[in-house]
Amino acid sequence: MENFSCDGFVIREQYTGEADRIITVLTKDYGVIRAFAKGARRPKSKLYSGTAFLVYSHFVFFEKNDVYRVTEATVLNVFPNLEKELDRIAVVNHFCELIMELISHHQESSEALRLLLNTVYFLNKGVNAWYLKPLFQLRILSLTGFTPNIIACNNCGTFETETMYFDIEGGTLYCSECAKHGRACSVDLINTIRDIVIPTLEKAYQYKVSAENIGELNQLCDDYLTACTERKYKTLDFLRSL
Ligand SMILES: [Zn+2]
Fold it and tell me: For residues 211 and 128, what is the distance between their CA atoms, to the nearest angstrom?
């Protein structure tokens, strides 16, 4: 039996009982935690605001035999504009599904939490959802062992040719001389991916993408994500239907 506190972002909220919530939270030190919040759906409950979906809160959890209860939840930050646009809420749902897929319980997750909070902050401020989505996908994959090897041709080390070939399954890049398979991409698109993956997170949010490449960038990242994790995502199917 133990009480402990940590900050975390609510990535899922499920209803149970008459007025209870089961929440899933991404925390810095303990990875993804699933916890019961008794009475939290009652507006007068002290847990009401801090355990809501897409809220960043300071939590106190009570843990016994790996079962968690929320005993305190103090709101640190809210993102009220996320639900105002369909593509914003659809993309943030996708981010939450990716966190649940890629981050485990008890996994140190400070970088993943920083990525999620920053991306949600920009989304809430009105930055385009289709601009932030590939950034989040590539950065969360890179944090969890799926960094694409896009610095140079995997065979000969050539930095760029006008057309380059990205092998989705292997996450590797080939120049036009060495390409035997892989998806043909303009060097502009490859440079965009480099600008997302290679620099610090702060710099990555300044990446440039041309209007004609943004659709292809999104498609490539969706396909790379699906290949890396070998599964389909409901939230991605929904995004594609928009
Ligand atoms: Zn080559």
Answer: 12
**Does position 1 have pLDDT exceeding 80, yes or no?**
no
Number of domains, the chain:
2
Domain of 29: which CATH number?
2.40.50.140
Measured in angstroms, how far is the CA atom of residue 230 from the centroid of ligand 1?
A: 27
Q: What are 159-180's pLDDT values in tens digits? A: 999 999 999 999 999 999 999 8
Assess whether 125 and 215 both reside in one domain.
yes
Distance 213 CA to ligand 1 centre (A): 23
Q: Report CA(153)–ligand 1 centroid distance (Å).
A: 5
| Structural domain boundaries enclosing 43 | 2-77
The letter for the amino acid at 15 is: Y
Together in a domain, 167 and 47: no
Distance (angstroms) between ligand 1 centre and the Cα of 171 equals 15
Cα(173) to centroid(ligand 1), Å: 8
Question: What gap in Å lies between CA 56 and CA 53, rounded to an integer?
Answer: 9
Which pLDDT tens digit goes with each residue over 197-220? 999 999 999 999 999 999 999 999
217 CA distance to ligand 1 middle (Å): 22
